[in-house]
Amino acid sequence: MVTATEEKRKQRHIIDEAIKGVPLDKIEADVKPSLHLDVKPSLHYIYSSTNTHKEVKEDLHQRTLIFEDKNIRKGFAQVPNVVLRDSTLSGNEKTLYALLLSYAWQDKECFPGQDKLAEDMGLSRVSVNQMLSKLKNKKLIRIKRQGLGKVNIYHIRKLSDAYPQMVD
C-alpha cells in the first residue's frame, strides 16, 4: 500500500517534470503548485497582487504552456482565431491589430499615435497608415480622427462586421 507521503512525493515529481524541473521553492509566489491526494495533480494560479486569490485549475497532463517569465504574466494581447487565420491579412496587419488590442485593454479604447504604433512595430509611419487603412476597409477597426496634431481614436469593431459568419 502506498503511503500518503509516498503519494505526495510522486505527485511532486510529476509537477516538477511539468514545470521543466524548476524546484517548487523557486517558483514565483503567484504561481503555486497544489498537491491533492484525492485528485490528479493540478496547478492553481493565484493572483496574489490583487489579494482576491482567484484560482484557475488546470490538469497538468493537459498543460502545455507555462509562463516562467513573470513579465509575460503582466499582460499580453490575445488575437481572435478568425483574425489570426485570415489569409487576406498580412502578418504585419495581424500584428498591428494585436497591438491595437493590447492598447484597447488599458482604457477600453485605444488611442496611441501613429508614430507610437510605427515605433512599436519597427516600421515607418507610412506603412502603419497603409495597414490601418486595410484594417479599416476590412471592417476590423473604426478610426475617429480628432484633428491636426491630435491622436486618432481607434475603435475595435465587432468581429461580425468583418466576418459575417460570426454571430454577435
TrEMBL record:
Pfam families: HTH_36. This is Putative DNA binding, helix-turn-helix domain containing protein. InterPro entries: WH-like_DNA-bd_sf, WH_DNA-bd_sf.
